[in-house]
# Entry
Amino acid sequence: MSQKLTLALSKGRIFEETLPLLKAAGIEVTEDPETSRKLILPTNDPLVNVIIVRASDVPTYVQYGAADFGVAGKDVLLEHGGEGLYQPIDLEIAKCRMSVAVSAGFDYASAIRQGARLRVATKYLLTAREHFAAKGMHVDLIKLYGSMELAPLVGLADAIVDLVSTGGTLRANNLVEVEHIMDISSRLVVNQAALKLKRERLQPILDAFEKASIK
Ligand code: PRT
Ligand code: MG
# Structure
């Protein structure tokens, strides 16, 4: 097997926050995904390429070996399930939290007390289902692919489960956080076969990432 390595990243915060870790491993991406239309980006190392995919597709590319390794949020990994993936390092990047939020005027606590069956909109069906089941709450989950913050404003849902970092999006839409479900950060994920077959090439990169991500 060739020792060429493919790293799967998503555009935006994950790409930006992975760059310093790559640099620590001596790898520099030589094209900017925000301006380039290329989906396969070269690096200063002819044996390392970066592919740009949707954040939620990173685990899939790595699971099937189309990428040897990648960086994905814990939110994405929980929904994917993590099959075929080795998850050696929490990179402590792209940090945020997963929360339940409602419209400022909605009395979430009393709705729960009264045993109301709430409608909850989210992209994170598995994580949300687990969270409400653990609380013994019956909810109807509505799957959305984005802009969850809109759902309570237009009567699609009573509550949302979404990611929050500064809280600015919630505030701008008159929503309030009522439950903190978990802290989220991004993890390095490695294809299990690649880890065995390309260990010599991968291990120094994993070591450099680990060292650089210790705060
Ligand atoms: O955008 P796209 O639909 O293509 O995919 P994506 O939203 O999954 O990708 P991206 O790049 O936005 O997020 C990639 C990863 O970054 C996520 O899987 C998370 O692990 C992590 N991350 C960290 C975040 C945030 N912070 C974050 N704030 N992902 C999304 N957000 C969104 C959030 O959903 C909400 O709409 O930002 C908004 C809230 O931000 P504040 O600062 O207003 O609170
Ligand atoms: Mg996004």
The mean pLDDT is 96. Residues 10, 12-14, 54-56, 73, 75-76, 94, 96, 146, 162-169, 184, 186 surround phosphoribosyl ATP (ligand 1) (CB under 6 Å). The first strand starts at residue 5 and ends at 9.
